[in-house]
Amino acid sequence: MPKGSRGASVSDAEKLILDYLNEQNRPFSVQNLIDNLHGAVKKAGCQKALDSLVEKDRITLKEFGKAKIYYAKQDQFELPSKAELDALDGEVARLQGELNAANEERKELSIAVSALGSQLTDEEITAETERLTRENAEAQARLERFRAEGHLISPEERARTQAAYGDMMTQWRRRRRLCLNILEMLSEKSEKPVPEFMDEMGLDSDEAAGTPLKEYELATGAKPRPPQPPAHRPAHRPAGGAPAAKSKPAVKAKATAPKAKAKAAPSKAKGAAGRSPAKRATKKARIEDDDDDDDQKDE
Length: 299
Fold this sequence. Notes:
The chain has helices at residues 10-24, 30-36, 43-55, 82-118, 122-149, 155-190, 194-201, 213-220, 248-272, 277-298; strands at 59-64, 67-72. It is mainly alpha-helical and 299 residues long. β1 (59-64) and β2 form a beta hairpin. The chain is elongated and about 115 Å long. Mean pLDDT is 76; it is low at 1-7 and 230-274.
């Protein structure tokens, strides 16, 4: 009698395959059976056993092209009644509900575990509390030392300091405005944008140097004194930079200023269209400085 794999005879292989097909009651290919039986039957012996079972009409064979599918004879199984099918459907629905509930509980537990994992343990909380207590004690000791050794500033000295700071801020704004005016005129003469002209001259703006004017005004809260308004345009100011005295010539200069501006208006209007965005930004910064000075005058 021919032998199958590992000493199993063909009859033993047939019995093993037949029992497996009846138990699973699903279609298999030859390779599926070999894999599911974990090598209990080799391929040659498996094919011989299947051919013998088909020939004996113990199993069913379906061919799909070159593929061959084997499965158990269906007439040997007793069909369940409608009541049994309904009972099975109910059991499936019940088990599906339990599965869904278990999945929801698993999700909630996972969220809780993640939340607990991000929190400190009791030991870590104790250590953190001790560290913060030490830091608070050290800070309190430093505060007491500063209070004991520190020098209190009188209101008069504080007012004088704020007034001096206000004067310095006023000079800063005034000189900044003058510098912007000069840079704009020079850049127009050189036909270059203000940033490019400043780069060639090796100049830096307040913002580029890390000292923006607005930060110093907001950080201190000091109210600088209003600047003295110039009697005429900065281009006509004396070399010393001091504000012109209030006199009749100054009044005449103010009266004639609109005419000079009116004459210069066409040329400015002609060049405004070709002015670069950098120049317009510089002009805007100068106008903002003038508006700040006007607001301080009103105060």
